[in-house]
């Protein structure tokens, strides 16, 4: 019997669809699942008659693979990944490759890469984005880990990944150890921001203008033909057109306003805090989901807390255009924050990230795929060391064109009492980043006053620190800790 090109463990939705994708592209795949009955069920249904080898045990799986063996784990992140690694290790030989395709936290991938390399094995932690449809028809794939493993999985990954218009695969090597899963984590953080911003645009049109879902569907369809062309805008238009079979109401109106989350947005926020990178839009998107989750408290609060009783009375078409401008400008700032975070992580963790390649990987297959990402790739191709997307000509000009409407929407939301945390935090980020001077001089004076944390002076070279005896009896001893 011919041996398989790759093995896959974990036949849940993503695993099954990746297997079918690989097989459709000419690869023979061996499959194994802890619940062995799932293997037989898959082979007798979606896998029937295809070049798929079923394995009923780990030794069977190992025996069915070409060397060096390549085994992809599509199991729940966390302890299950470590458990399967331990089950597989005794059966592997030097040079064999384990691949984690789940949403693992990047420090776990860094740890596992080191652990397996010490045993003579190779490890890849790869982000896979696109959901069920992407896994089947072409996802965005973001691999990192042991560099010497890439040559063996590259033909498979690049063949099954999504392709952009010129045929380039949405898959390229990201970097050492946890780099692939870090980039996927940032992708998901940006995704949180995108979804929140689109929801705020919807909420402004619904509550400030009183628009129906049918009216809003037409707007989202129109927006998807321009600068905002993206998967999330496309599906938002489709959602607006869906009616509930039970009540006949728009489907979106019968869904309770409590959003879930699986943790990757929170990880992105935590890492931004760890690295000291301003990423307020991602953080506010996470907090917005947390706010939505306390529904019962909000119901009670709504009966006791007052707000403005103001209605928008201006031109409807102009207002809709300003909402579009706010959405686009906020989106630019959100992505600028994500790439700024990756830049800081590359320095901290010694990764050589190619930001143009990352933008290309996100052009197709993944949830945040958008026309807009082509402009990001162009910006980094032109300036590989670009510090911030806001400094690239295209995005600088786009903000200039759209910021008047953006500011008016945020101001109107405040006047009416509609929360727009993503729009407003993105604007605050932009205004903060463009400011030569901020109020942090007073903040640092406060820190020096109560904690002798020292400060730098505007009339002295950077790196020289000073302390003032603010009260006249504080002494001259300064704190040894100074953190910007």
Q: Which helices and strands occur, and which strands form pairs?
A:
Layout: E1 6-9, H1 13-24, E2 29-32, H2 37-43, E3 52-54, H3 58-63, E4 70-73, H4 79-88, E5 97-100, H5 106-117, E6 122-129, H6 131-137, E7 140-145, H7 150-160, E8 175-176, H8 179-208, H9 213-223, H10 231-240, H11 251-254, H12 264-275, H13 280-293, H14 295-302, H15 316-349, H16 355-361, H17 372-382, H18 393-416, H19 421-433, H20 440-451
Helix pairs in contact: 1-6, 8-12, 8-13, 8-15, 9-10, 12-13, 13-19, 15-18, 15-19, 16-17
Q: What does this molecule look like?
A:
The structure is a single chain. The protein has 484 residues and is α/β, with parallel strands linked by helices. Helix content is 53%, strand content 7%. It contains 20 helices and eight strands. Strands 3-2-1-4-5-6-7-8 form an eight-stranded mixed beta sheet, with helices on both faces. Strand 7, helix 7 (150-160) and strand 8 (175-176) form a beta-alpha-beta unit.
